[in-house]
Design a protein that fits this description.
With 515 residues, the chain is of the alpha+beta class. The chain is globular and about 85 Å long. The strands form 5 sheets. Strands 19-18-5-20-21-22 form a 6-stranded mixed beta sheet, covered by helices on one side. Strands 6-17-16-13-8-9 form a 6-stranded antiparallel beta sheet, covered by helices on one side. Strands 10-11-12-7-14-15 form a 6-stranded antiparallel beta sheet, with no helix packed on it. The model has no long low-confidence stretch (mean pLDDT 89). Helices cover 29% and strands 25% of the residues.
């Protein structure tokens, strides 16, 4: 009487299908459902995801596309795999049609993720890094066996995604601007991801961001401060691990070795408890030019909980770095702090950043590593840290993610009716103005890639105008004279006093929400 219910229970219970009347009834009903199949003598449910994986596994792109069209977000998440497995030198019609149908219905996350993956060509043999959801951010790496993504195909798919982004921004309700000023340095800041587990920090850097380190005349001073709970001794340790070009471990500076290379790295001394209210503070000074001259390429700062007390059990714990002149006494000077972030979560080892001495840039990682036992120190984890650092930089450096620069250019091209100025390509801004009849997506591409500026020596006039500002440093002259508008800036400055609405990086991405 209820064949579908009987089929559901048979599949859930793993009932053996016999030769009798019941077996015939179940098989007849299963034939009416694509997601139920006979495996041996039992019925099994084949989920939608499993059917997609099965189609991709046999390189049946058309079957995979038919399924993925039902869920636009999933189609965008697997777009790079569809393009790679199509074997076509141009964008396949089936994939192009499905992409055109999915783009208007997808959220900002899948849209930006797909766009980022079209910017970098997968190379077999490399490793992929994943950041699973959780209270703290952990990174896991696996070998990358994906087929290469043809550059021409990826480029065309990226153009379609970019055009959709500009269209959304242009049609969305909101303020239009008379003028826009953008910093080209935003290209080093990827769109935020996995932010739920990010540490609260002084400067809200998206994971994977690259920023220049202090000048040669300055010393980078790492600092760590913590306070322990009453009746519990907590021993945190500030440390650095040092690696060469090939990520081979060549040295350390921590409580076991307070100096490296005659003071190129120098630790203030090991503190083993932090009773309230003063707590405890450790410092570690890095002379980056001297370290580079000793053969060091990568510097990995980290904080250990030596006696295995999780960071979230501490009343107060934070770390960061300052830029100080010469060999000033090791003290905490808030005026010199470049970055500060809280230690939190069920973790005992955190790696906030990786410094590349060749490029003099720091890559913001904000990840934790799994630990075992107690008495944690650099030496025990040196290989694990080296593998993690290599995998993270291999992921961050190819710029395989959408950036805040992309978002700024799309927003400016879509919503600015006047001039767009770009800082960072010379001593004075470059000026752009959309030509009559020029598609806004083409205008965005021209701004982003620095093609054919309309003025090479241009000074933005903001007084009395509605302005869109997307800046690395909030030091734009004349911004306080703008009549209205919005501003994103990474570092604070005089622009904070302007009559403009402040946006975060997440707010910029949220503007792509479909109407």
């Amino acid at each position: 009487r209820h064949a579908r219910v009987a089929l559901a229970f048979a599949a859930l219970r793993g009932t053996r299908v016999g030769d009798g009347a019941l077996g015939e009834l179940l098989l007849a009903e299963a034939a009416r459902h694509d997601d139920v199949r006979l495996a041996g003598d039992r019925l099994r449910v084949v989920t939608w995801q499993a059917r997609v994986e099965e189609a991709l596994g046999r390189w049946d792109v058309e079957a995979a596309v038919r399924l993925l069209r039902e869920r636009p977000g999933e189609l965008l998440r697997r777009l790079d795999l569809l393009l790679a497995r199509s074997g076509s030198a141009t964008l396949p019609d089936t994939v192009g049609e499905a992409l055109a149908d999915a783009l208007p219905r997808s959220g900002p996350g899948p849209l930006l993720g797909a766009y980022g993956r079209t910017k970098v060509r997968a190379v077999p043999g490399h490793r992929r890094v994943f950041f699973p959801r959780g209270r703290v951010t952990k990174a896991y790496a696996v070998e990358d066996h994906r087929p290469p993504l043809p550059a021409r195909v990826a480029g065309r798919a990226g153009e379609l995604i970019e055009a959709e982004a500009v269209r959304r921004l242009g049609e969305r309700d909101g303020e239009r601007y008379d003028v826009a000023v953008l910093d080209a340095a935003l290209a080093d800041l990827p769109v935020p991801f996995a932010e739920r587990a990010s540490a609260a920090s002084l400067v809200a850097l998206p994971r994977g961001s690259s920023l220049p380190m202090p000048a040669d005349s300055e010393t980078v001073r790492l600092f760590l401060h913590w306070t322990q709970p009453k009746g519990v001794r907590v021993d945190l340790d500030l440390s650095v691990a040092l690696y060469d070009d090939l990520w081979r471990f060549i040295g350390l500076c921590d409580y076991t070795s307070l100096e490296y290379a005659g003071g190129a790295a120098r630790h203030s001394g090991d503190l083993t408890s932090a009773p309230a209210p003063q707590g405890a503070t450790e410092y570690l000074d890095l002379d980056l030019p001297r370290l580079a001259n000793t053969g060091v390429r990568f510097v990995v700062p980290m904080v250990f909980s030596y006696n295995d007390i999780a960071f979230d059990e501490l009343p107060d714990a934070f770390t960061g770095f300052m830029a100080v002149q010469g060999k000033e006494r090791a003290v905490y000077d808030p005026r010199t702090v470049r970055q500060r972030f809280d230690l939190a979560g069920d973790a005992k080892l955190t790696v906030p950043m990786i410094v590349d001495l060749r490029t003099r840039h720091a890559w913001w990682t904000d990840v934790t590593l799994a630990t075992t036992g107690t008495h944690h120190a650099v030496w025990r984890y040196r290989r694990q840290i080296g593998r993690m650092g290599n995998d993270l930089l291999a992921t961050f450096q190819p710029c395989g993610r959408a950036t805040l620069w992309d978002l700024a250019c799309w927003t400016a091209a879509a919503r600015t009716d006047g001039d767009v100025y770009v800082r960072g390509r010379g001593h004075v801004p470059w000026g752009y103005r959309r030509a009559e009849g020029e598609p806004r997506a083409d205008f965005a591409l021209r701004i982003r890639d620095g093609w054919e500026p309309d003025a090479l020596r241009a000074e933005p006039e903001l007084a009395g105008r509605s302005a869109l500002l997307a800046l690395l440093h909030g030091d734009l002259p004349g911004a306080q004279d703008a009549a209205s508008g919005t501003v994103y800036r990474l570092y604070p400055g005089p622009v904070d006093a302007a009559p403009l609405e402040r946006l975060t990086a997440g707010d910029l991405a949220g503007l792509l929400e479909p109407a």
